[in-house]
Amino acid sequence: MKRRKTLILCIDAGSHDYLTASDLPTIRELAKSGFYVHANAVIPSVTNVNNVSIATGTFPEKHGITTNYHVDRATGKGEFIEDNRFLLEPTLFETAKACKFADKAALFVTKQKLLRMLEAGTDIAIAAESPPSEYIRTVGPVEPIYSAEINWWLLRAVHAVLRTDDPDLVYCSTTDWVQHKYAPDDDVSQQHLEELDRIIGNIIADDPEREIYITADHGMLEKTTAIDPGRVLIEHDIPASSIPIIKDRYVAHHGNLGGAAYVFLEDGADITQAIQTLLNTPGIEEAYSAEDAARTFRLHRERIGDIFVLADKTTVFGELETVIEPTTVRSHGSRHESYVPIIGYNSPWTATDFEYNVDVGRLFLESLR
Fold first, then answer.
1. What are the C-alpha distances in Å from 79 to residues 71, 89, 101, 117, 265?
2. What average pLDDT score do residues 62-72 get?
């Protein structure tokens, strides 16, 4: 029986506008030979939520990761989600091993937090942010997390391991520092993607029959206004606080300003008035109770705030000193950054099988059963 080998690549913030603005002959050829789908990301459109969704083949209602920063409702204390303690579903690697699909599975990520979240079931797990010394000897010195070069190093590491260890299942996720800092038509953006495309071409040249999927966790847009939804409610005599879902330790990317937030009320009886107040605020496009948010976006009900808010195209949410302030930042998290490509090559499925980036993992899992 022919051995099936699968590579899943999540280009962080690798949305359609970035791909089309650059000269990417390898990705163009993959799409021509296979398919290119304009698909949906999971909302909130942030890194943790979408990478875990792809890498477990499930929505947050099942895997439990609804944010980058978890607030314990009982204690009010918050913590960064940077390991698998909150993960409720097995990874693709664990399932592939249990089904005897993969003798060897590998995970390559730029961010260390994703390594700790997703490494269960892997034989090889590498974060470019802090790689093992043997890979520095093999692949070369690694650049800082806030660089384009770190993603190039990561793809070169994938290529090196495919050549030497030839794992059956590989999941790779880059970081989006470049897209946070540069628009699609900027030279730095184009150079970043063009080099990734060149390395992907080298991978395919070594094994043209490998099954490959390229997708993204979210898009990226320029923002001009920042709002603190908690302060909005306090100004209307509704005691509340809010946490932007994008909140993590990589503040040089986005300053913890993103297009979605969870709002926590001191008194649940205020919820109807609070939702209406938020919806009446310019820049806030959508507001949902926890029940409605969980149902609409397939979120885990116990791991979100009392209210889920989404921003309009030019607005982000943050923990601010004032209710509203001007900003200059490229960021994500809202519905407007939730449209992503899926490119499939040597796939047993067709374009019509894919609606969400989650489907890359979901269909892979279904094929094992």
1. 7, 20, 36, 14, 19
2. 94
For CATH 3.30.1360.110, list the domain ranges present in the chain: 221-331
Q: Please state the CATH superfamily assignment of the domain spanning residues 6-219+338-368 in this structure.
A: Alkaline Phosphatase, subunit A (3.40.720.10)
Residue 165, Ramachandran bin (φ over 0: left; ψ between -120 and 50: alpha; else beta): alpha
Give one DSSP letter per residue of 283-318, joined into a string: TEEEEEEHHHHHHHHT--GGGS-SEEEEE-TTEEE-
Please give the Cα distance from 190 to 308 (Å, whole number): 35
The pairing of beta strand 169-173 with beta strand 6-10: parallel
- Give the chain's mean pLDDT: 96
Q: What is the pTM of this model?
A: 0.96
**Exposure string for 44-62, b = 16+ CB within 10 A, e = fewer:** bbbbbbbbbbbbbbbbbbe
Three state DSSP letters for 163-201: HHCCCCEEEEECCCHHHHHCCCCCHHHHHHHHHHHHHHH
- In angstroms, rounded to a whole number, what is the distance separating the alpha carbons of residues 154 and 139? 9
Q: Are 274 and 263 in contact (CB under 8 A)?
A: yes
- Asked if residue 142 lies in contact with residue 136, where contact means CB atoms within 8 angstroms, the answer is yes
By residue count, the chain amounts to 369
55, amino acid identity: A
Q: Where in the chain is the domain with CATH 3.40.720.10?
A: 6-219+338-368
Q: Which CATH class is domain 221-331?
A: alpha beta
What single DSSP character describes residue 2? P
Three-class secondary structure of residue 216 per DSSP: coil
Instruction: Please report, for residues 28, 78, 184, 189, 281, the alpha-carbon distance to residue 20 in angstroms, rounded to integers and kept in the order given.
Output: 9, 39, 8, 11, 35
List, for residues 302-329, the tens digit of each pLDDT value.
999 999 999 999 999 999 999 999 999 9
Q: Is the peptide bond before 141 cis (omega within 30 degrees of 0)?
A: no
| Model confidence at 176: pLDDT above 70 | yes
Q: Which of 283, 173, 153 is nearest to 231 (CA)?
A: 283
